[in-house]
């Protein structure tokens, strides 16, 4: 029988390839879903923090209830899926340590990046639960002087992060195309632009606040602010900035991966053949 010039794979090799394909496809889908959930939690944490600070002058249980409602969300939406992925990879590592059936490097790299992002999100969540330890009291001063004037800029950043979560999850799925990669790059540029705008306005608003504090007739919020107010606000701001940094870095790393680029730029069969060296 004349040779066609192509090497045919035995049926059992084809089954193995399909099995591995479904395994890492499911894993990448799970990682993409966890990343998408993580970006959505950023916004939920911010809204909870903003509303808590706004109500700090009131003796109400609403703030504690809002903070308590956040407990468990991070575990359920992000941490639990990552544990499942880790268990799957542990099994696959035992079965396949080298050769064509080893999972693509982007799988392990994305898992590690997600674990770092989870750690930063945990720190952000802790800011919702922190109690005043310096003066023993919070006031609503940070809301009136910082959060309220900057709210539209922060919301724009958070919503851009959510969009980045959606398009990055698509890149990690089998639906990925070149347009998906382009969308991630575009959203990263948009997010970085919005963060730069937020920084500029933060400097402007903070300068105005300092001028008011030094004026002859400062507002009651400026007069009665406490040291805990500053610690609370700046701690949350720092933690949120770290989360956004790690989320952006993860998206950049995924799109820079050669295997991901090949997968998104070609059909599945051509990609599989390239992977197997056929």
In short:
The protein has 10 helices and no strands. The chain has 278 residues and is mainly α.
Helical content stands at over 70%
The span between the termini is 20 Å
Low-confidence stretches: 1-20
Helix and strand content put the structural class at mainly alpha
What shape does the CA trace take?
elongated
Count the E strands.
Answer: 0
Number of helices: 10
| Percent in strands | under 5%
Order of helices and strands: HHHHHHHHHH
Main β-sheet description: none
Rg on CA atoms, Å: 24 Å
Give the rounded overall mean pLDDT. 85
Question: Could you characterize the architecture of this molecule?
Answer:
- This protein has 278 residues and is mainly α.
- It is 79% helix and 0% strand.
- The chain contains ten helices and no strands.
- The protein has helices at 11-54, 62-70, 73-95, 105-129, 141-171, 178-214, 220-224, 227-256, 258-265, 268-276.
- The two termini are 20 Å apart.
- The model is unreliable at 1-20 (pLDDT under 50).
Task: Describe the protein's topology.
Blueprint: H1 11-54, H2 62-70, H3 73-95, H4 105-129, H5 141-171, H6 178-214, H7 220-224, H8 227-256, H9 258-265, H10 268-276
Protein traits:
disordered N terminus, 278 residues, 0% strand, mainly alpha
């Amino acid at each position: 029988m004349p040779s066609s010039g192509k090497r045919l794979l035995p049926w059992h090799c084809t089954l193995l390839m399909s099995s591995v394909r479904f395994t890492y496809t499911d894993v990448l889908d799970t990682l993409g879903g966890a990343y998408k959930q993580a970006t959505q939690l950023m916004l939920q944490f911010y809204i909870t923090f903003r509303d808590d600070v706004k109500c700090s002058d009131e003796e109400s249980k609403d703030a504690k209830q809002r903070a308590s409602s956040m407990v468990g969300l991070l575990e359920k939406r992000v941490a639990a899926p990552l544990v499942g992925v880790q268990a799957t990879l542990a099994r696959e590592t035992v079965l396949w340590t080298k050769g064509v059936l080893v999972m693509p490097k982007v799988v392990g790299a994305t898992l590690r990046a997600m674990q770092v992002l989870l750690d930063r999100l945990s720190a952000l969540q802790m800011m919702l639960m922190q109690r005043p330890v310096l003066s023993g009291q919070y006031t609503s001063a940070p809301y009136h002087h910082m959060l309220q004037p900057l709210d539209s800029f922060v919301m724009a950043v958070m919503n851009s992060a959510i969009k980045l979560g959606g398009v990055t999850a698509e890149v990690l799925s089998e639906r990925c195309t070149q347009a998906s990669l382009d969308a991630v790059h575009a959203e990263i540029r948009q997010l970085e632009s919005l963060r730069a705008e937020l920084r500029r306005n933060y400097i402007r608003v903070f300068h105005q606040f300092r001028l008011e504090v030094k004026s002859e007739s400062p507002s009651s919020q400026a007069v009665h602010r406490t040291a805990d107010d500053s610690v609370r606000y700046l701690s949350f701001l720092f933690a949120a900035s770290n989360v956004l940094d790690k989320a952006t870095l993860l998206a950049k790393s995924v799109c820079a991966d050669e295997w991901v680029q090949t997968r998104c730029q070609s059909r599945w069969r051509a990609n599989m053949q390239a992977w197997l060296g056929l």
